[in-house]
Every structure is written in structure tokens, then in C-alpha cells.
Design brief:
alpha+beta; four-stranded antiparallel beta sheet; 5 helices; 15 strands; 26% helix; globular
């Protein structure tokens, strides 16, 4: 028995590498979360975009609420089992009319996870129609395994290292995955995907939440952190992440900075193994 997804959706994920859309939160709830994110941006005088968009679940109780929500975790459990860690989280904002985009890539490229079984839940805080630059995927491409990527220097590419697929993949039959505010999608770590610029009249904001089963490990030399969000962990592959109490309080900021530094160090350590 599945908890949230239908048997057809689980089969579709195995076949195509994604499920979308999935209902989770009301538009009003998504709007409230967006308002809190943008209030923080105004207070900081800086938007949460490339270079400042990692691991907000360590700073904000409202993001912690999302990543622990049964509406999301029940669907993730249907795919990877009941013992779940949050390995990473990235905010993906695109201002209306900007050139911000995400190049063709696979999420697994710099994660060094073994086995490569993590699932990304993309939770929409705003509507993300095709014209706003929703995700575009190559169905079934997750079955190709890890592919070679190159690092392309492009300030408009939201990916932290500009990682871009460096091999030919048949993209004649791609599928767009529009979602409304409060919905989410799920995709496999090896699914080839991108997203184009936002040509709509509103900002597009989503959270890319990377969940893994607790038996998965990071093979990099540098040990990193991850948050246990459901079940138990009898493996101990990661150092635990603390849940935030205050909104970007001093303890939250200190732990967040240390966790991001460790993640970036790991990311740099493994980059030579997968790039061309």
C-alpha cells in the first residue's frame, strides 16, 4: 500500500523518472511562505539567488515545516522507503523578465551519493507555468546513469558551478512540468532536466528538496551533514543537522554557515571525478 502516490504514479516514476503535479498545500499557505522569504530578503538587502540559496531549512522554521510535511514525505516514502534524510535544499527563484535559467543537467552530478537513489521534491511557492520557466525533462533519461558534465561560466545559470550536460541526449520528446503554488513534483537524481528564463509577469520561486534513504552514503572524503526527517537511521553516514528554532537567529546562522561550508567543500572535492 502506498501512502500518497497511486500505484500508477509509482510505476510512472520508475519508467519516466518523475511524477508531476502533486497537490500538497493551499495557494494561501504557499503565498504566506513566499511572503516570509521575501521579507527576509528585504531585511537582508539581498535576494536568495545563486550563491545564497543553499540549505534554508537550517535558518527558517517555516522551511523546516515544509520539509517535514506529511504531504511531501508520504509521497517520498512511496518511492524510497520510510527512513529518510534531507541531504540538501536549494531555493530556485527567477525574477520576471530576467535571464536566469538552469542548464541541462542531472542533480546527482556533484552529490557523490551511493547508491544514486535520491529524489528531488520541487515545491512551488508561486505558480510555475511553462512561460515562467518550469522544469523541462527528458522522460526515461534517469536510466542512462550518471553522464558527463562540463562547468560553463554563465552568470545567468542558477546552478552553483554552471554544470551543463556534455554528452548528447535525445531531447526531441521533452516534457514540461508546470506546477501551481502549493503543488510539487518529484524527480530522480539522474533525470536529465533544465528550466528556461521566466517570461511571465511574476517571480517564480520553488524549493528543490533532495531526499535520500538513510542507507545511502556520501562517498566523498569530506563528511557532510544531513537532517533525519522521518523514521530512524541505523547507518550513521552523516552528521545530524539541527532544526531551527528562531527565524535566522544567531545559532541558526552559525550552524547554517558551517553546514554550507562543509557541503561546498565536498562539492569541490568530487567535481574532478565527474566533469570534462
Amino acid at each position: 500500500m502506498t501512502r500518497k502516490l497511486s500505484a500508477e504514479q509509482v510505476a510512472g516514476y520508475a519508467r519516466d523518472g518523475y511524477v508531476s503535479p502533486i497537490d500538497a498545500f493551499s495557494p494561501a499557505q504557499a503565498r504566506a511562505w513566499r511572503d516570509r522569504l521575501e521579507a527576509f530578503e528585504r531585511a537582508e538587502g539581498q535576494k536568495m539567488t545563486r550563491g545564497h540559496n543553499f540549505k534554508p531549512h537550517l535558518l527558517f522554521p517555516w522551511v523546516d515545516e515544509i520539509v517535514h510535511s506529511p504531504a511531501v514525505l508520504d509521497a517520498v516514502e512511496d518511492l524510497i522507503g520510510p527512513d529518510i534524510r534531507l541531504f540538501h535544499l536549494t531555493v530556485w527563484p527567477k525574477d520576471a523578465g530576467s535571464g536566469a535559467h538552469v542548464s541541462w543537467h542531472q542533480d546527482a552530478t556533484y552529490f557523490a551519493l551511493e547508491p544514486a537513489c535520491h529524489v528531488t521534491a520541487w515545491v512551488a511557492l508561486t505558480d510555475a507555468p511553462v512561460e515562467a520557466g518550469c522544469m523541462e525533462v527528458v522522460p526515461g533519461s534517469h536510466k542512462l546513469g550518471q553522464l558527463k558534465h562540463a562547468e560553463m561560466q554563465d552568470p545567468d545559470n542558477l546552478l552553483s558551478r554552471g554544470q551543463t550536460l556534455a554528452v548528447d541526449v535525445d531531447r526531441r520528446r521533452t516534457v514540461h512540468m508546470p506546477v501551481r503554488a502549493g503543488q510539487f513534483s518529484l524527480h530522480h537524481t539522474h533525470l536529465v532536466h533544465n528550466s528556461g528564463p521566466n517570461r511571465s509577469h511574476d517571480r517564480r520561486i520553488g524549493l528543490g528538496i533532495s531526499y535520500i534513504p538513510t542507507h545511502a552514503s556520501c562517498t566523498a572524503r569530506r563528511r557532510v551533514t544531513a537532517m533525519l526527517v522521518r523514521g530512524t537511521d541505523s547507518y550513521g553516514h552523516f552528521d545530524d543537522e539541527r532544526r531551527p528554532i528562531a527565524e535566522a537567529g544567531p545559532d541558526e546562522r552559525a550552524f547554517h554557515a558551517a553546514a554550507v561550508a562543509r557541503f561546498r567543500g565536498m562539492n569541490a572535492d568530487v567535481s574532478g571525478d565527474v566533469t570534462v
